[in-house]
Design goal:
heterodimer; A: 349 residues; mainly alpha; ABC transporter involved in vitamin B12 uptake, BtuC; globular; B: 405 residues; 2 domains; 69% helix; 0% strand
Chain lengths: 349, 405
């Protein structure tokens, strides 16, 4: 945009354009955190508790990132807002529970609350959820693609799939909430400077980091990963350059589903398992995806961490039930000022 | 014919007369068609009242009331999705805001012992129609609030934002005790014209008219409410049919089909979308009000995304989006399927128990699975629904456009 055009803009538009720049937007998001922090301090919340909440927020962000990366890739590659993603996470959590019931109960590993059977269950549940995603694609989305259904019909099919998947969870496991381990003590210990965390939470954070690194390697170093990123960026261009989009779509569902499964298992370990848990995570997940620009896996990670931290810090002075509502407020800010997200090109999104 | 049967048949006449009127050929003179509808409707009503046992009749009436409430909301969704292509999956937000608004406006603040059990922000004790009006206005304001920042953006952003507002509204009604009694139900929402079935009667009604209602017992109140609910469906339907054939209705469909072309013809697309979104939300809010006055006691769990959003989507998609008759038809068919499968799952109980002892209690979720599969099958095999959209240009042009291949 040249100077002459800029001077012809109305003052409101100019303010909006400045606020919509990447730098200003990052500053705005930083301000949100600062405001939350100041409100908490004003209400007499000790700094140690706030720091602990920040650490917990990073952990929650790690869990959200596992869901958000897959959601963002599916959104980018298939142009489907996958409303079933949260329920795929739920399925992962419950499948792990199923596997654990089949294995003998082991002693807790070190400081953690879980035994080896939990790790096996995690490893089994992940590909199963990937297959669930791929199955949904074969049964529903591929047929809709073949019929050239409009995108909004795909979105509705995703909503239908969400309720279908959740109904399966209800039928197999019932509506009550359950824990992976009931009655095991889960003491928190002091990390440093009075910051208290549970060992499980550190494990979740570590595992989330490992998986994110694996996703990074996959997207950057493998041919499939590069094809995936190219398709997410511009599906038409990718098809023209000879990328087999159906195969990309298959791997997107498998990988996105597996990550969602892992996210669900870890969320279940940190809190509890409920059939609605994934549906409630859907809003924070979408907030993270849009914040970090649709189709951008690294953006989804950044968005998820930010949403996780804002969510946790807000619990210092707000009913924790409102966490998804806080994520929604961040989403509204994004939609108002920079709908294309942090990493988006202007005019896109 | 006994007095009770007579008054009941008269009350059931309204919806049946409307259906008969619609079924008569449009070519008839207006008065003849109207008279034919009324007489035909009453004859059917009388036959039904005499032939159907009273227990089943009461069930049918309550079924028709809930079906009518869903029909109103499906009509609201039809304005948003069917005509304008706006993907709102937060129907529950407008539905519940409407219901709680009328509850707060029409109840009075609890006093004495009850004050310990019920907390509410205010209670105006206003009449039913004021409550309905307030419900529509509040839902419309909420729509302006959500639609403003999101309708300018791509269509899936609106969907995500509406999920968000529905979740936030649910969380507020679940957690804020001071507002509408938090997780506890808000009770004692007045039933309009309840005095008709009371022994004391309505003092504003002339005695001879009141005498007509005398045979009704308090448990027959649903017959009165059926008239109210049916009236709202009919009015909403007629107003929307009129609006959709007006220039405004044509602009909505222009925006849905070719947004860029509509913009190039000088239409303010964002503004038109916001209008359609708000009109739809007002209708949903009114539907919520009808629900609250029928249920008498409501709480946040009544507005679960399953009942208050998903089911309504399946109704509209099945009936035929872009068609007001389809919206009403779909509402009754899916509500029939939903309640019918309850009987079916009940019959399956022994078989389910044989598979697993936990399964019978989870029967309701088999119904959810069935409805979800129904939606996916509609999307895959018949996306236009049972009726499909009527193609027309204007009521002035007389004939209908040829359906497109």
């Amino acid at each position: 945009m040249n100077g002459a055009a800029a001077t012809r803009m109305r003052p409101g538009e100019r303010v909006k354009r400045v606020l919509g720049s990447r730098q200003a937007f990052v500053v705005l998001l930083g301000l949100v955190l600062v405001v939350l922090w100041l409100v908490a301090v004003y209400q007499g919340i000790p700094a140690q508790r706030l720091l602990s909440l920040m650490v917990r927020g990073v952990m929650l962000g790690g869990i959200l990132a596992l869901g958000a990366i897959g959601l963002s890739l599916i959104f980018g590659v298939l142009r489907i807002p996958n409303f079933a993603h949260g329920d795929m996470m739920t399925t992962g959590a419950y499948l792990a529970l199923l596997v654990m019931a089949l294995l003998p109960l082991g002693a807790p590993l070190g400081p953690f609350s879980f035994g080896y059977e939990f790790l096996i269950a995690l490893v089994v549940a992940m590909p199963l959820v990937g297959l669930l995603g791929y199955g949904l694609d074969r049964l529903v989305f591929r047929r809709l693609r073949a019929k050239r259904s409009p995108p909004v019909i795909m979105a509705m099919a995703a909503l239908g799939s969400a309720f279908l998947v959740r109904s399966l969870v209800y039928v197999f496991w019932g509506a009550d909430f359950v824990f992976y381990y009931t009655g095991r003590p889960r003491p928190a210990f002091e990390l440093f400077a009075g910051i208290r965390v549970r060992p499980d939470q550190l494990f979740i954070l570590g595992l989330a980091l490992v998986m994110i690194v694996l996703v990074y390697l996959l997207l950057e170093r493998t041919k499939m990963g590069k094809a995936m990123r190219a398709t997410a960026d511009n599906p038409e261009l990718a098809r023209v350059t000879g990328i087999d989009t159906e195969s990309v779509i298959r791997w997107t569902w498998l990988i996105g589903g597996a990550l969602a499964g892992a996210g669900g298992v870890m969320y279940g370990l940190d809190a509890q398992l409920r059939p609605e848990m994934g549906w409630w995570l859907l809003l924070p997940l979408f907030a993270a995806v849009i914040l970090g620009t649709i189709g951008n896996a690294y953006g989804a990670l950044v968005g998820a961490l930010l949403i996780g931290i804002v969510w946790q810090v807000s619990t210092a002075f707000l009913n924790p039930a409102y966490g998804p509502g806080v994520a929604f407020m961040v989403l509204i800010l994004v939609l108002l000022f920079r709908p294309q997200g942090i990493f988006g090109k202007p005019g896109g999104g | 014919m006994s007095d009770v049967a007579l008054i009941k048949s008269l009350l059931v006449t309204l919806p049946l007369a409307f259906l008969t009127w619609r079924a008569l050929p449009a070519g008839w003179p207006v008065l003849a068609r109207l008279a034919g509808g009324l007489v035909g409707g009453w004859l059917i009503a009388a036959a039904v009242t005499l032939l159907v046992p009273s227990g089943l009749m009461a069930y049918l009436v309550s079924f028709a009331i809930v079906g009518s409430i869903y029909a109103v909301i499906a009509l609201g969704l039809n304005v948003q999705w069917g005509y304008t292509g706006l993907f709102n999956i937060g129907i529950a937000a407008f539905f519940s805001v409407g219901a709680f608004t009328t509850a707060l406006v029409t109840t009075t603040l609890p006093t004495g012992v009850m004050a310990g059990f019920t907390q509410q922000a205010f209670g105006l004790g206003a009449p039913f129609l004021v409550g309905v009006l307030a419900a529509g206005v509040t839902a419309g304001l909420l729509a302006l609030l959500v639609g403003g920042p999101t309708l300018r953006l791509r269509e899936d952003y609106l969907a995500i934002a509406t999920i968000g507002i529905a979740e936030v509204v649910r969380l507020i009604f679940q957690n804020e005790r001071w507002l509408a009694n938090g997780p506890q139900p808000l009770r004692g929402i007045p039933q309009p014209l309840n005095c008709l079935v009371r022994d004391a009667g309505c003092e504003w009604l002339p005695a001879p008219v009141m005498a007509l209602f005398a045979p009704l017992a308090p448990r027959d109140y649903t017959f009165v409410y059926l008239v109210i609910a049916a009236l709202f469906v009919i009015l909403t339907f007629l107003v929307l049919e009129r609006a959709i054939r007006s220039p405004w209705g044509r602009v909505l469909r222009a925006v849905r089909e070719e947004e860029d072309a509509a913009a190039m013809s000088g239409k303010d697309v964002a503004r038109i979308k916001l209008q359609a979104f708000t009109v739809g939300a007002v209708i949903m809010g009114i539907g919520g009000a009808l629900y609250a006055h029928y249920m008498v006691s409501i709480d946040y769990s009544h507005f679960d995304p399953l009942y208050a959003t998903f089911l309504i989507w399946v109704m509209l998609m099945l009936g035929g989006s872009g068609n007001n008759r389809g919206a009403i038809l779909g509402a009754f068919v899916i509500w029939g399927v939903w309640t019918g499968t309850a009987f079916f799952v009940d019959m399956l109980r022994p078989a389910l128990a044989a598979i697993s002892p936990d399964l019978p209690a989870r029967g309701p979720y088999l119904r959810l699975m069935f409805i979800a599969i129904v939606l996916l099958l509609i999307l895959l095999f018949r996306p236009k629904g049972i009726i499909g959209e009527e193609k027309f240009v204007s009521h002035l042009s007389g004939g209908r456009e040829q359906p497109q291949p």
